[in-house]
Structure formats: C-alpha cells, structure tokens
Amino acid sequence: MTTAIWIVLALLLIGVYLSWTAGRLDRLHARIDAARAALDAQLLRRVSVAQELATAGVFDPAASMVIYQAAHAARLAPEDQREVAESELSQALRVVFAESAQVVAVREAPGGQASADELEAAVRRVPMARRFHNDAVRAARAVRRHRTVRWFRLAGHAPFPLAFEMDDEPPPALVEHTARPDRPGH
C-alpha cells in the first residue's frame, strides 16, 4: 500500500512539474509575441519618420532618394527579407547623417527640429526593442532545449523562436548631437 502511495505521489509531482514547465514556456512564448509586436512598432515608426524626412525637402535630392528608397524597401519587405531591409535602412541613415552638419541642417529647416527629434528617438528605441525580443527568444530557447520539454512535447506546435538580427547602430552624428549637454530640454 505504501508503495502505491509513493508512486502516486511521484506521478503527481512529475505532473505538477510538467504543468509548471509548460506554463512557463507558454508565458515565454507570449513574451516573445509581445516583444515582437513592440519591435515591429518601433521599426515601423523609424520607417515612417525616415520617409517623412525624405519627402520633407530638408535633404538634397540624392540623400532624400537614398533614405526614401531604403525606408520604402524596409516597409514592404517580406518577412524573410525584413532583417536585411531594416539593416539597409540603418546603413542609409548612417550614410546621410555621417556629418553633424547634416543634423544641424535638418534641425534648422522648418519643422526639422521635431522630425529630427522623432528620428533620434526612433533610432534609439529600435536597438532596445530588438534586445528585449532577442532576450525573450534566448530564454524560450533555453527552456525548449531541456530533454523533458522535448520528450513530452511541452512546446506543442509553437514554432521554434527566432532572433531578429539586424544592423541597428544609430547614426553617430545624430545621437552625439542630441546627447550634448548644452542642448535645452535634454
């Protein structure tokens, strides 16, 4: 009789552990979904501000075309090519804002101050959103690597989480210009 009690107790503990692990994995997948939505929102914001600046007439025609084409490509890129398109937008922004004189010229243009501030905020938020997403992916992958998760198929039919890898380095001239202490309000 006591052996049966121990077996039932062991099975109950295993069941509780498996249920807890499945719940944890489910929460991690929900966290990935939320982080991906936040990343998508920040990428869309960056694309929108870049397109707005490109069409505002604050750049020379060549710079406007480079930014607009890169932003347009990033907005319309299929999911499997999105990382490359977003990286190309980052590179285009760094090329156009390579000199701090370009940042000053944009800020001095009518309506340019607000647009430059929006762009600066967007290029700062994209790396943070990407980092949160990739951290959630890393945590879910760590749990999914456990044997018990694989043996008991606790992940269900959820796709294996993939990190979002892109070049998200902001234009140094834009970031340095906004980080200056003599700038009011910052």
Automatic annotation (TrEMBL):
Matches recorded under SUPFAM superfamilies: LemA-like
Protein name: LemA family protein
Organism of this sequence: Streptomyces radicis
